[in-house]
Design a protein that fits this description.
heterodimer, A: mainly beta, seven-stranded mixed sheet, four-stranded antiparallel sheet, 11 strands, 53% strand, B: six-stranded mixed sheet
């Protein structure tokens, strides 16, 4: 079956540093990828929609300068948390949509970010 | 506006007994509906999905869900719980857009 690889699975960083999270579709092309954030014991909140070759579409309240998204190829999207602060600590999950099939979504295994 | 409501934040069952996780949705269109499972610190795994075909949908690991338009419900059931079913379950609606709308989740505990 289709696989989405998300890396790293967990990361600890100092406040003020930047962290990059990668999301790769391993065996299919994904023109659209999604980035979610999940707080402990809460649901997933969509942060942004990443479109290959164009700018990401951010949800209301998400700082685009804080959460930089790059979707440079059909199989890779990256989320960079810039100048991370402790309140950015969270579980981040990506998903990738199989091109042309709206309901066919696959999720990465998530990245636990802890900012000290 | 589209939304999804998971009526129980926490469900506890004994191993071998039936599981019922409730979900109601609100959508102006005929939506696609999903159930996902999440084990601790892991990503989401698709259990099953409804996309306007058969109203009774069978998924993996013995789970199934029935789409009831008149009740705007999409409850998840399993005849006999297993210890490995303990996890967080999310009901998700996809309206006519690409975006997924997640419910708040139901934590399933299974006791021996």
């Amino acid at each position: 079956g289709a696989v989405v690889s998300q890396h790293p699975s967990w990361v600890i960083c100092k406040s003020g540093t930047s962290v990059k999270i990668e999301c790769r579709s391993l065996d299919f092309q994904a023109t659209t990828m999604f980035w979610y954030r999940q707080f402990p014991k809460q649901s997933l909140m969509l942060m942004a929609t990443s479109n290959e070759g164009s700018k990401a579409t951010y949800e209301q309240g998400v700082e685009k300068d804080k959460f930089l998204i790059n979707h440079a190829s059909l199989t890779l999207s990256t989320l960079t948390v810039t100048s991370a602060h402790p309140e950015d600590s969270s579980f981040y999950i990506c998903s990738a949509r199989v091109e042309g099939i709206r309901e066919k979504l696959f999720f990465g295994s998530g990245t636990q970010l802890s900012v000290l | 506006a589209q939304s999804v409501t998971q009526l129980d934040s926490h469900v506890s069952v004994s191993e071998g007994t039936p599981v019922l996780l409730r979900c109601n949705y609100s959508s102006s269109y005929s939506p696609s509906l999903f159930w996902y499972v999440q084990h601790p610190n892991k990503g989401l795994q698709l259990l099953l999905k409804y996309t306007s075909a058969a109203t009774l949908v069978k998924g993996i690991n013995g789970f199934e869900a029935e789409f009831k338009k008149s009740e705007t419900s999409f409850h998840l059931t399993k005849p006999s719980a297993h210890m490995s079913d303990a996890a967080e379950y999310f009901c998700v609606v996809m309206p006519n857009t690409d975006k997924l709308i997640f419910g708040t989740g139901t934590r399933l505990q299974v006791f021996p």
